[in-house]
């Protein structure tokens, strides 16, 4: 039973609009309950289009109070208003004409946070992907580019600040308690990049001089009193602007660049032209309230949205199937930026951890889809880790395949050729083909075939011939709607390490194209022979994670330890230790499930502790080594019939074994990795904190008493250390007096900071074990919880479902039933948020039977509910099919 199932949209149905939009003139008379929007749109009929063809505009939940054609009322016989369209007939055959639409909106009751809404008394918009149609009737699609003028009228007292895209034209007092401001954006843009913000906000100002000497005013708007917490974001912005000039040759193109932080926002941030709107979580930071991870996220997201100015805004998408054109590319750009700002190897490890824990499960489950999909029901459900993160990996592979210089040449050609256009992935790839003379036809399958390729490898050494033979087979698993797959072009970086840790330099290689250490796999099965290899080598596959694949290879712990000690590629060192840990953790889960004793491999302990104590390695890297694969990682490794409780107890046993063996090293690190002087958020300081906290964590898990965690909690002088200590207390000693005290102290101290209270919710939502569900339910009645704020809902309900395997996947199915009820409650208010949180169940089929049955029932309960949004029904239907 549903009312809003959504039509399926197909890429093959794309065709340009019948009418060309020339310009847009918008006037907003802002009012919380009744905002009046007058849109004046100048169109002309596209050449060759039938003279009788009507103009069809998109709309969503609009009240129209006026419709004029060239300033004359349109007779009712000449237009139709349906649920989501406005159709106008009898329009001029060739001459341009002006349509004036007047609509009334209620920003205050707009709980979907799409279109124009209110957040903390601020008017704010979110138009990507299809929010502009909630403001006025409009050709709301990314291939309709126009120049906008925006006039904003509002009460002066409550909205002294009136902002929109582009450059400020002027404004004045209107004498009746209201004032107005006018903005003009000279760059043609699609409607999804429109933004308006009005309210009373504080500002942090700075300026940036571009490479060609133009001065740009920089402004970050935040709630009054929070200005000091925007300093890091401003610094990150200036570094982003400079980096984009230096690395991609891209200069900013308006007189002003603005960022507004709001506390009610569905996603991370939005790249509206000249006026980015951010979830305040990704702007506000100071040492007392933000962790090192928060700082790193702010830097990355500020950069991401800024980089969109060229990859997304100046060159945009022809249609929403091309979303990865801007998102995959822009994520790649922000990854490279962070790698340059921080440690490249550590950044890469973090990226791969994220990719494997979020994108790999998506690609292996019912929601799998290609990076460039060919159909969708609800576009908001395609802002996925596949489009973003796998899309970034595919861009990175283009750079690997072509090499740095040709990649740069291709990017330059792209900017040159397509500036001002709305284009496709095919256009993007053609730039690299034209710049390099290479054929990227087979490579393009990365955009079209879903599923994570699996490479199965085995090697044999022939001492007599001094040759090493690698047999490689690639398979791409079946995914929804794609059963048979073609072999892909996989650029696999491989090193051959000799016994002494040095790298073999083969005389010749046959069986595959090899450039430097990149082996180009293009066939289902390939045998690659390296000659002139003096002794049996240990292969180190997928250096730098050159391809987003799963690798199956039998490799001994000793061989992995050799890689971990000697690889020149630091990422590969981490990868070897991680693979070793994962093997052991998967075995431990099986042992735990069948009640056998759990064995921790000495080679694993040795490898981890050797890296942890190796002073030649940077602390951040050592911390990454010590951070064991998560329970979700282990579940993915096992693949099917998963029992989260067994995974957890197996992991716990391994952790304790490492803690016991490493006690001395961890105690030493705790003392060595202290920092003196004022807090600094830079990567080196963050690395020392990370290593110290990793050591502390093992020490706390190796001890029955909470003292060490309590003292860390008491002595912490920054949020990284404080939240880590609180997490250790809560997760290791959930019911101890000391933990209750610490939770209360923390809450009291940060009661007026919602973003910190989110951490307080998340820490408690991730306490392992079945009883956390009751805790989560109780926390929902906490006065700080607010079911209509997305950050609160994500930190409590979302964190529980996504990040608490034993608590959420209770064997009795109560976790799933709880989530189902939450989804049905959130959905009518905010479908996007509901659909997003529901994806936490995407791997339900890999659970053991009892849990899988409960999960399926909960999903069916959702699917059977009345009045589901298109967002939720799309997700739930795909998960059940
Ligand atoms: N384009 C934004 C970004 O930087 C994401 C906006 C997504 N919003 C949405 N409602 N789907 O990645
Ligand atoms: Zn983006």
TrEMBL record:
Q: Which UniProt keywords apply?
A: Aminopeptidase, Hydrolase, Metal-binding, Metalloprotease, Protease, Zinc
Annotated Peptidase M1 membrane alanine aminopeptidase domain residues: 232-443
One Pfam family hit: DUF3458
Q: What is an annotated GO biological process for this record, any one?
A: proteolysis
Q: Please state every residue range assigned to the domain named Peptidase M1 alanyl aminopeptidase Ig-like fold.
A: 451-552
EC number(s) from the headed UniProt entry: 3.4.11.2
Cited Gene3D superfamilies: 2.60.40.1840, 3.30.2010.30, Neutral Protease Domain 2 (1.10.390.10), Peptidase M1, alanyl aminopeptidase, C-terminal domain (1.25.50.10), tricorn interacting facor f3 domain (2.60.40.1730)
Q: What InterPro entries does the annotation carry?
A: Aminopeptidase_N-like_N (IPR045357), Aminopeptidase_N-like_N_sf (IPR042097), PepN_Ig-like_sf (IPR038438), Peptidase_M1 (IPR001930), Peptidase_M1_dom (IPR014782), Peptidase_M1_pepN (IPR012779), Peptidase_M1_pepN_C (IPR024601), Peptidase_M1_pepN_C_sf (IPR037144)
Could you tell me one molecular function GO term of this UniProt entry?
zinc ion binding
Indicate the segments forming the Aminopeptidase N-like N-terminal domain, all copies: 25-193
What NCBIfam families does the entry give?
Answer: pepN_proteo
What the record says about family reads: Belongs to the peptidase M1 family.
Question: What protein is this chain from?
Answer: Aminopeptidase N
Q: Which gene encodes it?
A: pepN
């Amino acid at each position: 039973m549903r009312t809003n199932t959504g039509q399926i949209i197909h890429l093959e149905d794309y065709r340009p609009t019948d009418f060309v939009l020339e310009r847009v003139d918008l006037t907003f008379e802002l009012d919380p309950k009744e905002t009046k929007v007058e849109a004046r749109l100048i169109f002309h009929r596209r050449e060759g289009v039938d003279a009788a063809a009507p103009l069809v505009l998109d709309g969503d939940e609009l009240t129209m109070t006026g419709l004029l054609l060239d300033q004359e009322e349109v007779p009712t016989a000449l237009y139709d208003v349906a649920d989501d369209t406005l159709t106008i007939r009898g329009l001029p055959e060739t001459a341009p004409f002006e349509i004036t639409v007047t609509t009334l909106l209620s920003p205050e009751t707009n709980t979907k946070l799409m279109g124009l809404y209110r957040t903390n008394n601020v008017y704010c918009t979110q138009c990507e992907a299809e929010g502009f149609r909630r403001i006025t009737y409009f050709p709301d699609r990314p291939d309709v580019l126009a120049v906008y003028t925006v006039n904003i009228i509002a009460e002066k007292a409550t909205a002294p600040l009136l902002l929109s895209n582009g450059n400020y034209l002027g404004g004045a007092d209107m004498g009746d308690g209201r004032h107005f401001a006018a903005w003009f954006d000279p760059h043609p843009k699609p409607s999804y990049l429109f933004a308006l913000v009005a309210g009373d906000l504080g500002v942090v100002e700075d300026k940036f001089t571009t490479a060609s000497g133009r001065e740009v005013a920089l402004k970050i708007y935040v709630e009054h009193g929070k200005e000091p917490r925007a300093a890091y974001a401003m610094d990150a912005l200036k570094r982003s602007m400079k980096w984009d000039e230096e690395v991609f040759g891209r200069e900013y193109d308006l007189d002003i660049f603005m960022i507004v932080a709001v506390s009610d926002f569905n996603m991370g941030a939005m790249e509206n032209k000249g006026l980015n709107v951010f979830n305040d979580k990704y702007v506000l930071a100071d040492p007392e309230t933000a962790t090192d991870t928060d700082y790193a996220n702010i830097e990355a997201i500020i950069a991401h949205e800024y980089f969109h100015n060229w990859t997304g805004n100046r060159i945009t998408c022809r249609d929403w199937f091309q979303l990865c054109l801007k998102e995959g590319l822009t994520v790649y750009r922000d990854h490279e930026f962070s790698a340059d700002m921080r440690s490249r190897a550590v950044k890469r490890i973090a990226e791969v951890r994220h990719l494997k824990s979020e994108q790999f499960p998506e690609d292996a489950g019912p929601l799998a889809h290609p990076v460039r999909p060919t159909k969708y029901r609800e576009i908001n459900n395609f802002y996925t880790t596949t489009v973003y993160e796998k899309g970034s990996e595919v861009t990175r592979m283009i750079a690997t395949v072509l090499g740095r210089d040709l990649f740069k040449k291709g990017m330059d050609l792209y900017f040159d050729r397509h500036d001002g256009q709305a284009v496709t992935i095919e256009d993007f790839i053609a730039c690299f083909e034209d710049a390099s003379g290479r054929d990227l036809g087979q490579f393009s399958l990365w955009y079209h075939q879903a599923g994570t390729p699996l490479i199965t490898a085995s090697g044999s050494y022939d001492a007599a011939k001094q040759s090493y033979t690698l047999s490689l087979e690639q398979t791409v698993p079946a995914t929804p709607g794609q059963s048979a797959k073609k072999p892909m072009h996989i650029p696999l970086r491989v090193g051959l390490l000799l016994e002494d840790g040095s790298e073999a330099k083969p005389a010749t290689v046959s069986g595959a194209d090899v450039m430097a250490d990149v082996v180009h796999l293009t066939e289902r099965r390939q045998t690659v022979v390296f000659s002139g290899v003096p002794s049996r080598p240990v292969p180190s596959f997928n250096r730098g994670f050159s391809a987003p694949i799963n690798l199956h290879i039998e490799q001994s712990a000793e061989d992995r330890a050799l890689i971990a000690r000697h690889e020149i590629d630091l990422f590969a060192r981490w990868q070897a230790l991680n693979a070793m840990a994962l093997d052991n953790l998967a075995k431990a889960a099986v042992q735990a499930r069948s009640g056998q004793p759990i064995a921790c491999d000495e080679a694993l302990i040795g490898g981890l502790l050797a890296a942890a104590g190796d002073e030649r390695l940077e602390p951040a890297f050592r911390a990454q080594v010590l951070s064991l694969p998560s329970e979700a990682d282990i579940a993915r490794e096992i693949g099917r019939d998963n029992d989260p409780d067994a995974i957890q107890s197996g992991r716990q046993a391994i952790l304790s074994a490492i803690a016991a063996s490493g006690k001395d090293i961890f105690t030493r690190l705790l003392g060595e990795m202290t920092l003196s002087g004022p807090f600094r958020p830079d990567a080196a300081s963050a690395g020392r904190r990370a290593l110290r906290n990793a050591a502390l964590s093992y020490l706390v898990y190796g001890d029955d008493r909470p003292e060490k965690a309590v003292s860390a909690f008491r002595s912490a002088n920054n949020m990284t250390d404080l939240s880590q200590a609180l997490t250790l207390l809560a997760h290791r000693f959930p019911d101890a007096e000391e933990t209750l005290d610490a939770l209360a102290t923390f809450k009291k101290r940060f009661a007026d900071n919602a973003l910190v209270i989110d951490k307080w919710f998340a820490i408690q939502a991730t306490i392992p074990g079945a009883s956390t569900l009751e805790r989560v339910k109780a926390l929902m009645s906490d006065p700080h919880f607010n079911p209509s704020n997305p950050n609160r809902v994500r930190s409590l309900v979302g964190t529980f479902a996504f990040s608490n395997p034993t608590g959420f996947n209770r064997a009795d199915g109560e976790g799933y039933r709880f989530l189902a009820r939450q989804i049905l409650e959130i959905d009518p208010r905010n479908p996007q948020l509901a659909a997003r949180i529901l994806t936490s169940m995407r791997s339900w089929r890999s659970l053991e039977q009892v849990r899988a049955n409960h999960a399926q029932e909960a999903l069916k309960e959702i699917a059977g509910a009345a009045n589901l949004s298109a967002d939720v029904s799309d997700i739930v239907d795909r998960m059940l099919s």
